[in-house]
Give the backbone structure.
Amino acid sequence: MIIALLSDIHGNLEALSACLKHADQAGAGRYAFLGDLVGYGADPQAVVDTIARYADRGAVVVKGNHDEAVEKTPRYMNESVRAVIDWTRQALSDDGKAFLSSLSLCVRESDFCFVHASAASPQRWDYIDSAAAARRSIEAAQVIYTFCGHVHDQELYFQGAGGKTMAFKPIAGTPVPIGRHRRWLAIVGSVGQPRDNNPAAAYALFDTERERITFRRVPYDHIAAARKIREAGLPVSIAYRVEKGI
Amino acid sequence: MSDRCAGSELDGFRIGDRIHSGAMGYIYRVDGGDGAFPKIMKVPRVGPGESGEGVISYETEAMVLPALSGPHVPRFVAMGNLSKTPYLVTEWVEGESLQHLINRGALAPDRTASLGSAIADAVHSLHLQDVVHLDLKPDNVIIKADATVVLIDFGLAYHAHFPDLLAEEHRFAAGSAPYISPEQVLGRRSDPRSDIFSLGAMLYEMATGELPFGVPSTMAGLRDRLWLDPVPPRVRSPSVPPWLQEIVLRCLEPDAEDRYQSAALVAFDLRNPDQVALTARARKSARAGLLEQTRRWWRTRDRRPGPHALPKSQVSATPVVMVAVDTTHPDDERQPALQRATAQVLSLSAEFRLICVSVIRRSVAAGGAEGGESASGAYLDHLVRLRHWVEPLHLPPRRLSLHVIESANPEGALLEFARRNNVDLIVLGAPHPAQLGLAWWRSIASGVTANANCTVHVVRVPAAAS
C-alpha cells in the first residue's frame, strides 16, 4: 500500500490538484491530509470540497492551526494572516466551515501517527524545528511512523541505536528505506506554499510494504495560483511568496 | 541466534561454508538466487549481549549497496527484513586482496602506480554516485584477474541520499586506525576527500611497506595525523621516485583543501608520472619541524567543518577537461574558437585539470620508410605546436598536461584516452571545412559525441552570412 502524505495545502487548488494527480499516477492507495487545508490561497472552498471527498472514501484528515483559526481567530497571528483568515471565513460555505471544525488534531493508528504539528501537544502548534522537538513528538506519538507538516520544508528525523534523534534532509525523488526497527518522523513539506526557494509543490509517498518513503516535488502552475491570490484582493506579499517559493 | 548451519536454507539460498566470523557478524558462501556468479551472505550479530555495532553496519550496507552500480562494487543480490531475518546476499568477488599482495612486501614504483590508479578509478566511481566509502584499507580492495579493482564492505559508508545511521556512533564509526582521515577522526563523515587520504595511506604502504602513521590505538594517537606529517616515503625507501612521493604526500595532507580534490586527478597523475608537477613535497627529506607542527596543531583547534556539499557536486567542481587540438592544421580558423571555448569552460571551475590531446595519423608520424628519428621529430613538432596552442590560456603546469597520440583511428584514440583518464568533458572542433562534403555522422566530432561516456562540447565557427 502506498500512502500519499499531503500537508499545508493553504487553499492552493492548483498545487493540490497537481499533487493528487501525481500521487494517483504513483499508485497511491490511501491519502492523508496533515492540516492547514486553508489560509493564504484563493480557493479554500474548492480545496475543502476536494479533501472532504477524499475523507468520504477513507482518507485521514487532521486539523491545522489555520483551519482552527477559521473558527476562532487566535491572538498570535499577524495582521496580514488575520486578513486572510477573515477573507477565508467569508469564502467558505457553512458546510466547509463545519468540515474544518469537525477535524481531529491527531489521528493514531497501530503504526502511524498523523498530526499537523507536534504529537507532544498538538493544540500548541509547536514547530518541529530541531532534533529535540522531533524527539518529543516521536516519544509522545509512541508509534513507528509520525507524519506531520506545519514546518514547510521537507525533513526526515530518525532515532539512532543510541537513542539520539537525528535529522536528514531528503533528496526529492530518491526512495529512502525507513525500516520498522526504528522510529521515524517525516515532515512531508508544503503542497500550497513551499518556502525553500523552489515554488514546486511538496508532498511524500510512503510505501508500507517496502518500508520506503519518497519525498516529492511537483511543478504546477504557481503563476496562476499567485494571480488568483492577487485577484481575490489578498495581500500581495502572499502571492509573491507563492510565485517565488519563499 | 544469528549463526547458521551449513546446508540450511533461507529465502531460497542454500547456506554453505562459513568463511568469516567477526565482531560484526558472520559471512557464508551461499548458492541460489538470480545470476550465475558466486555469492556470499552476510548476517549481523543480533540479540541480547550483542553490541549493536554489527546491526548498524549491516543496516548501512543494506541501504547503500543496492543503490550502487558499476564494475567497482560487488553486485547486490537480496536482503532480508531487519526486524525479522536480517541478511545481505552479494556477489563474492574473485580476486586477491591488496592486503594479501602487500603482505609479500613493498611494490615497485610502477606497480604501485598502476595498481594505485586502478584503485583511484574505483574510488572515483563511488564518489560520482554520491558515496564516500570511509573504510578504505587493503583488506577492502580486491584486485580481479583482469586488474579491475572492486571495493568491498560498505558497512561504514556514507551515502548522501540516505540518512546517516552512523552519525551518532562515533566511537566505532571511525574506521581503521592506520588509514582514516583527520576529518573522520573529528567525526565528519561526508567528505569524499577522506577517501583520498585513505588512498594516500595505502599508496604509502604499497610504496614503502610501512604505514604512514603506524597503528595508533588511542584517540590521542589518532589525532596526531591532524598536524603530524608522515616520514617522507623516500626516506623509508630511496627507490620511491620524487613524483610518487609528491602524489602520496599530497593525498596525505592533513587539510582536505590541500589534497587532490578528486580521485580522478590522483589516477591521472599515477598514470602520467612525467606530467606530475613537483613541489616541495617531492623534495622533502624529513618531517615538518616542531614550529610547523605547532602551527598546524594550532590551526586544527578551530577547524570547523566546511559547508555540506554532495560528494558528486564536490567532485564535479574539479573536472578533468580534455581538449582535442588539430595540430596538423595549426592555422585553421577553428583554433581561436576552440581556445575561447576552452577558456570559458575552465573559467567555471577553480580546480580542474586540462588535458590537451593531439592525435596524429601513424602514417604521418612514421615519416619516411626508415621511421626512427624522423618519427620522433614529427612527434616533438606536434608537442611544440600543442604547447603553443595552450600558451594563451596561461595555465600553471599542475593544471595542464600535453599528449600527442599516434593512431590511425583518431576517434577511437580520443575516446579511449578520455575513458582511461576519467575525463568529465571533451572539447573539440566541428568538422573541418575540408570535410564539409562529408556527412556529419562521418566526422570525428560526431563519432566522439555519439560514443563518449561524458559530456562533449563541439565548437563550430559560424559560416559568414551570405
